[in-house]
Amino acid sequence: MALARALDLTASWPVPNVAAAVVRSGELLDTIGDIDHQFRLASISKPIVAWAVLIAVEEGLLSLDSPLGQPGCTLRHLLSHAGGYPTEGVEPIAAPERKRIYSNAGIELAAGAIGAAAAMPFDEYLRLGVLEPLGMTSTALRGSPAYGIWSTVRDVTRFMFEVESPVLISPDAARDAVRTQYPTLGGIVPGVGRFDVSPWGLGFEVRGDKHPHWTGSGNSRATFGHFGGSGTMMWIDPDAGIGVVALTDKMFDEWGSTALKRWPEFSNAALAEFAGAGSR
């Protein structure tokens, strides 16, 4: 018997608008909704911003080990939420590399440093370095680099193709972006829970052994991605060889308990339909 279409599950989500896609190796496998409708990505902005930072690093503007922020803090710390900065605010609340503190402020500090080093506003650097080369013509940063990018499913899939097969940065840099930084650190994934070990890459959350989680029970430990406070989610599972993105326009806080059921359900269905994966 044929499997039900995974993307049809989004019809049960209590949101005004949703668009979604499943991808593999530069190919759109399936889509639903208006994939050219603009949504605020919220924190899915962070991986895209981190990619621009990695371009700047490879251009020699800064290094991941460049001191930035409080004593002992580096660009690498900030991109992996290990810099000791709070979610909001410029004053650190812990020493670097003590715990994983999810921090919009750290991402903003990193982006500001790149803009200063490049002698241009960061949004311009992002446009020239990432958006235009990838053909993300419906994407723009409007506000904080931590959560202010607006985009479409079509454009986000173009970014996902870049992450899978990078052309803007070296393969080594791309692997570093999705490799756990400071692997012993624990912390809170906002809206999900506290974990004794909370793996994070450079702008990307890494699933690891987190349970429960917003991805599916069938997703591998190597899965990486992000979800956003505007009700958005994106992941790539390199073991399964597929990725998904789903964008909505209902704030996560307004349907978080439902999202944390519906997103894993959708993720597992996508894995079963397109990767033949079950729980592992």
What level of helicity do the residues show?
Answer: 25-40%
User: What topology, given as strand order, has the largest sheet?
Assistant: 2-1-11-10-9-8
CATH top level label:
Alpha Beta
Computed over alpha carbons, the radius of gyration is 18 Å
Number of strands: 11
Quaternary organisation of the protein chains: single chain
Can you identify the CATH superfamily?
Answer: DD-peptidase/beta-lactamase superfamily
Distance from N terminus to C terminus (CA atoms, Å) equals 23 Å
Number of helical runs?
7
Low-confidence blocks of residues: none
Mean pLDDT: 96
Instruction: Let me know the largest β-sheet.
Output: 6 strands, antiparallel
Sequence of secondary-structure elements: EEEHHHHEEHHEEEEEEH
Task: Please write out the topology.
Blueprint: E1 18-24, E2 27-32, E3 39-40, H1 45-58, H2 75-79, H3 104-118, H4 122-131, E4 140-141, E5 149-151, H5 153-164, H6 171-177, E6 187-189, E7 193-195, E8 205-206, E9 224-228, E10 232-237, E11 242-248, H7 252-275
Antiparallel strand pairs: 1-2, 1-11, 3-5, 4-5, 6-7, 8-9, 9-10, 10-11
